[in-house]
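Two folds, back to back.
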Amino acid sequence: MKLNDFLRAATKRERAEVAAVCNGSVSYLYQVAGGHRFASPRMAPEIEEKTRAVAADSDGRLETVPRQSLVRHPEIYRGVCPRENSGSTPVGDG
């Protein structure tokens, strides 16, 4: 799910929960969703994890926003395992 769609479908409380990872700024999330800004490589996984948690509590109304859709260069995440599954950092491409 794209961040723009996530924000549109989310309630005010759900948007605030996700914004907590970016210092409480819902405006920042809208700037990222609109393509006016990009999330940092450190912030993107945090937003992804928070949208996953919020989506899990939404009874299927919301989906996780992938970190690759939030950054300027999504290829930096190629071969990276999600933190909660493996607890590891980047893995080689081959």
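---
second:
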Amino acid sequence: MARARTVYRCTECGAEHARWAGRCDACGEWNTLVEEVATPRAGDGGAARRKAGVGALGSGGRVAQTPRLKEVVGGEPGIGKSTILLQVAAQLEATGVPALYVSGEESPLQVKLRADRLNALGIAPGLAVVMVGDNPASHVYVRNKQRTCEELGMHSVGHELPATTSQADLLALIDRLNRDPAIHGILVQLPLPKPLRSEPILYAVSPDKDVDGLHPVNVGKLMMGEPRFVPCTPAGIMAMLDYYKLPIEGKTAVVVGRSNLVGKPAAMLLLHRHATVTICHSKTQQLSVHTRQADILIAAIGRAKFVTAQMLKPGACVIDVGINRLDDGSLSGDVDFAAAREVAGWITPVPGGVGPMTVAMLIVNTVRAVQLSIGIPLA
């Protein structure tokens, strides 16, 4: 009798793989591999097939019939062919997510429908992105944001200022945008070049237009459990956890990094979802003692491959926020991905994990800003 053999075949190009991976080596598509188990059956002469991979959810929120490792992948804009709706979905499509749930109820389809309804009312959601200096990575990021807005029928304005811009001139621009009724959301691209100080600039943005969620008013609302605008990257992390039905309540979560943009708001969001949360930072002693307790580990410290496999709890969900340029020109996260994937139960790659979610949540926040400005629900 022939012996059963397991292979993983790409549904896009048909390439055969000896082991499961998040991305097909042949065509580069994400989440297209299905497991084929060649088990001869009497009378059919064929192979029994069963699907595996991210998105096939089973009971208890686990991915059905997948290998031990599951990669929560984001990919890059344009990867994958299951585009949902325009670019907001293309950004989310990169995650392999057919329906992203924000706050447990809001999907990209709903966001698009809200944008369409606003357009029908003669309101084009307006986003202003302010960038100072000539950071190539920031230029790419800003262009992605603007393209997303345009393809959704949103009004997008980019202000690219020289590094010599003064604090007073930048504050004057923010004031004009605050008073512009066509602009509903304002995002200041960080970091700002020296000697500019980011705090006065961020605090000058109207709390009602602060789609980055960094104004003290919005930070306070998040602290009180009444979030209005949540920083985009932490919001994207929570959306990924929700989509993949990864349990949060009662779990031990460790956030490595205490930045205002990621670490602190991510910890607060997890706390509001009843996780037991520990924040670690550069002064934390015996860091591994904490990380090895984590059911959910978020790495956001900006140090390439800092989190090793030995620092992980077997089966943990590992969210890698970092993106670092190595000496050979390649990109790496804060987690040693190659080693960590052998221990983690779920893990995000870099690039292509958290990044696309950040842009998607920016769109969500901009639509919410419109809702706030007109004072009517657009469910």
